[in-house]
Amino acid sequence: MPVRPVVVLPNPILTNPAQLVERFGSDTRDLAHDLIDTMRSRPACVGLAAPQIGVHLRAFVIDVTGHRKARSCAGETVLFNPDILRAEAPELAREGCLSVPDFTGDVARATIVVVRGFTADGEIRMIETDAFEARAVLHEMDHLDGRLFLDRVASPESVFRRRIYQ
Predict the structure, then answer these.
(1) Does 107 fall in a domain?
(2) For residue 139, which of 93, 102, 89 has the smallest C-alpha distance?
(3) Beta-carbon neighbour count of residue 159 at 10 Å?
(4) So which residues are the catalytic ones?
């Protein structure tokens, strides 16, 4: 499957709610593979939503395996039409995004999350997560709703130029 280019601001696909997936099959399986391959092609990337690769559908991939901040880990997970069933215990932490490459920001997000969605084959999948993985899920869910972490920063002073490591 191809690695797709990542859409960046100010592309309007990033600020419009994505559409529900209505049929599952080869198209959703292909999209799942493209999301995974594109996420894997970016160093330190732990999640990617379909709008970030120019696809206006409600789908995302996450994988926090091996991340130093992860406590829970559902492994490589692609969800279509996800819904948050529970979100609680917000905590402020720094976030970045491939679609906002020059900035990071401090965002309050729930640290306990339960999300339900569908696999690429249309099977129901539920994830109970916490800490960093919960943040990753909520960050990707925001993309599906046409929101970016910049819409949730604690204050204008909570936006920072991204550090460049060499």
Answers:
(1) yes
(2) 93
(3) 15
(4) 140
